[in-house]
Amino acid sequence: MNFSRAAARARARVRLSVRGRRGLGARIAPAKAAVVESSTRGPATPMSHAEVRKIFFGLMLAAFLAALNQTIIATALPTIGRYFGDFENLSWIVTAYLLTSTAVAPLYGKLSDIWGRRAMILAAIGLFVAGSAMAAAAPDMTWLILGRGLQGIGGGGILPLCQSVIADVVAPRERGRYQAYMGVVWVTSGVAGPVFGGMLAEHFHWSLIFWVNVPLGLGAAVLTNIYLKNIPRHDRRHKLDVLGAALMMGSAIPLLLALTWGGTRLPWLSPPILLLIAASFVLSLLFGWRLNRAAEPFLPLTVLNNPVMRMGTASASLSMGVQIGLTIVVPMYFEVAFHLSATESGIALIPIALTTPGSLLSGQAMMYWKHYKRAPMFGLACALVALVCLIWRPDMRLAYVIVLLSVVGTAVGLVYPVTTVSIQNAVPHHQVGIAMGALNFFRSLAAAFIVAVLGAILLAGLGVAPERGGHAISVISSVSAAGSGVALVFRWVFLAAFAFLAVSLLCLVLMEERPLRSGVVPADPPVAPPPGR
Question: How distant, in Å, are the alpha carbons of 303, 375, 431, 510, 518 from that of 428?
Fold first, then answer.
């Protein structure tokens, strides 16, 4: 009897224990879910302005490192060609960086959504510094080109990662101001890079152009490692679609090669150019097929289908492409139409490269205006009027030309902060990285396309084409005696720029103007109660 009562008491204790564990598990499960959910929310309180400023200082140095590298090499190319006795492959120094940096931009964005911003920025800076050292110590042109390619693999991730970090620590309503500051970095490097590069190549040694990146890169890495430790993490479980990434990058490379070589090294209708375009088209179709088949595609359909993402990316890409294209062809316009020297042309070019005023105005508009699109829309309208004047009278006085081009540069500066912040505000926060990577990817493709179009128009107008045995390097000498009438050739260049900017304005008008959030991340949706409650 005693044994039976003891056994009954033991069974009762077991049942109570099981019930207790079940109850505890029911209480723990929501707690675990809350912990996981909180990891995507970031800190409970927003970061102070002093904390954001420290983080932003490190980002500005990293962005300056990448931006300076894109312009500092331009004026040193002739010196490098003479040093190695190789002018035939000189263009590959620029092309190698363009190909790799464009192709990897979306990959960095996706990986930062998986592994975190700080780790990927450090990896990007490390690869960039390694490529710089490799290029500086190159014994021949082949190793220099390989070093530039490695530089591009690192440098291509710096800008989208910096933009993603800004989205992690600054609310969309205030984000335009910081995006404008980042624009100042790019303008400063754009103006100072060619001057600094020419000085180093002329008075010292061309390799210093690459060696200078090593201490700058190490400084950026130290600041990044220190200041980015406290940025909020917004981790989500992601799966990297390797095949989709390979197809997206693979489709970009032949297209960029075709746009870079077409009309300069090879005729546009030559078999190699047509084969490159066909290869890009086929790989793009395969990438589209992969997007519909992958469980988690490399470029999520939610990002692609977002109307703000589509219209904002198109507007930013076209406007920035026009600014880059004019920056490349306008110096020739100054030299052949107004007979300026190379140095004078560079000084006269500063107004169109100086997008800083527009960026600062746009950032302020986003902070205080409800309808923040009005500033860039008005700016693009003014830019179109300025281009109409240049189309009408491309041979007007130089002072008037510079003023009109400064209007175009300021208008482009107004567009980029608004479109970037609008995209960040519209996509889910855990997809900001891939959205910024895609934005920079399509912007680079658009810039290469617009540069190719403007260059083809210019070379055709000046009568220099590869199928007739001409070379772009002989343009200035072949038209130097043409007089002021050669300015009329640039009328068609300005007309093409007008068309691209008009489409950019249309896309901006069609982009939905959503209210900017005052917090870093959207409010979390209500958590559903556990089953059975």
Answer: 8, 26, 5, 21, 15
Extract the tokens encoding 178: 């910081």
The reply to whether 279 and 423 lie within a common domain is no
Give the CB-side neighbour count of residue 253, counting CA atoms within 13 A.
15
**Do both 287 and 218 map to the same domain?**
no
Same domain for 115 and 260, yes or no, is: no
Cα separation of the two ends of the chain: 41
- Determine the Cα–Cα distance for residues 93 and 341; give it in Å rounded to an integer: 25
Give dist(CA 232, CA 117) in Å, integer.
10
Q: Is 508 helix (H, G, I), strand (E, B) or coil?
A: helix
Tokens 């983080």 sit on residue:
55
Between CA 162 and CA 182 the distance in angstroms is: 9
The verdict on 278 and 360 lying in the same domain is: no
* Alpha carbons 35 and 433: distance in angstroms, whole number: 23
> Residue type at 515?
P
Burial of 22 (0-12, 13-18, 19+ CB in 10 A): exposed
Rounded Cα–Cα distance for residues 76 and 64 (Å): 19
The model carries a pTM of: 0.73
Per-residue pLDDT of the chain (533 residues; tens, 9 = 90+): 444 454 455 455 545 444 444 444 443 333 333 333 334 444 445 566 677 777 777 788 888 877 777 767 766 777 787 888 877 677 788 778 888 888 888 888 788 877 778 888 899 999 999 999 999 999 888 899 899 989 989 988 888 888 788 877 777 767 766 766 676 676 677 667 766 777 777 778 888 888 888 998 888 888 878 877 766 655 556 677 788 888 888 888 888 888 878 777 788 888 999 999 999 999 999 988 988 888 778 777 778 888 999 999 999 999 988 888 887 788 778 877 887 776 677 677 777 766 666 666 666 667 667 788 888 899 999 999 999 999 998 888 888 998 999 899 888 888 888 888 888 888 887 777 788 888 888 888 888 888 888 878 877 776 655 544 444 444 445 454 444 567 778 889 999 999 999 999 999 999 988 887 665 555 444 444 444 43
For 478, the domain range is 302-518
- Total count of domains within the chain: 3
Domain endpoint, select from 185, 203, 235: 235
Residues 204 and 168 in one domain: yes
Whether residue 374 is contained in a domain is answered as yes
Contacts of 35 (CB under 8 A, 6+ apart): none
